[in-house]
Amino acid sequence: MQYLFACCTDAGNWRQNNQDALLLKQASFRGKKIVLAAVCDGMGGLRKGEVASGALIRAFAGWFDQELPGILAAGCSQQKIFGSLDRFLTRMNERIRAYGCRHRIQTGTTVTAMLFAEDAYYTVHVGDCRGYEITSCIRRLTRDQTLAQEQVECGILTPEDAEYDVRRNILLQCIGASGKAEPVYRKGEICKNAVYLLCSDGFWHSASEPELQKVLAPEKLKEEAIMEKSLLRLVAQGRGRGEQDNISVLAVRTYE
Which residues 6+ apart lie within 8 Å of 50 measured at CB? Predict the structure, then answer.
């Protein structure tokens, strides 16, 4: 499998600093490309959100360089990948919590990451960043860990109402501010000629799924320059629609 990449991040209309952080890492293992993509959104309602998101992104880069090669050499099993990620995120949750205790603040970050290895993708998700798979249709790969989503699942809110409900910003957990992080893991088959999209909530707040499918259809994104231009267009659209949060998005386009 071959890959094209593009990303974009913006502070938005209101925040003075950008608490989002992005990661794209690529390596080769036994002649095949391995890719790690991640989006972290530092908690805007807490202090030093950019410290938490930045620390987690740097740690993910270290995991990719130092821990993943041994997992791949041992057979690249789902159990080993998710087990390693679970131990890694437990350590990071404790480390960020310890930082907050030392500085007498509460801080934390959400994260959505995807590892592309051989013919499979592996996702890890905590919070309300999102992952999408775009082919001839669009499919969300993550579930928002928010009070609004919980209300949808209880039948109190409709999915349409939840997109605009204030409870969409109330997180049920994140890395660093929760006593125990409980990431959600998922494995799937990589689609050929697809776009995999990771984004912070500031991005998806102002971009509907039909809009994403139209602008980011794989057949339109055959060069990285075109991908970047399309992402910039969607970020500018978010600012134009009054989005106050940081706006971040990362796209991985697969092809043979």
Answer: 17, 18, 19, 21, 42
Tens of pLDDT, residue by residue over 158-216, are 877 677 767 777 788 889 987 788 899 999 999 999 999 999 999 999 899 999 999 99
Burial of 35 (0-12, 13-18, 19+ CB in 10 A): buried
* Cβ–Cβ < 8 Å for 175, 53: no
pTM across the whole model: 0.93
CA angle 140, 144, 149 (to 5 degrees): 110
SS3 125: strand
Is 253 in contact with 190 (CB distance < 8 Å)? Answer: no
How big is the chain, counted in residues? 256
